[in-house]
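call fold(seq) -> tokens
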Amino acid sequence: AVVSTQSTGEQQTERMQQWITMAFCLTVILTFSIYLCIMEGWSFIDSLYFTFVSFTTIGFGDLYPSSSSTDFHIIFIFFLILGLISLGTVIEAQTDNFGRLLSTISSSCDCLCKNRCLGGGQREQAEA
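ret:
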């Protein structure tokens, strides 16, 4: 069995921080998407797609804002930086969670495999 090095209170605090970070990230994505709907006249799906592609730095180039306003560019850069930071934080937290899951699975498999492998190895030696 895997023994957790964190207390229940620490785990709850960490989980709450992850939820807050994820909610903040979604708020930034939705807010910028709505802003693009209004300013560019795009559909919400196109705006959401553009926002995700921009925040993940994929940048296909199939959609791009047509506005040449300085205010738009300042707001765009602000949201882009905010989106990169928040999405990066969410991805980091989920990577940590996935690492813990893999560690738990690995330790469970080690126990199962050692029992089977040792038993199988002893049988092969006895037959030889």
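The two ends are 35 Å apart (CA to CA).
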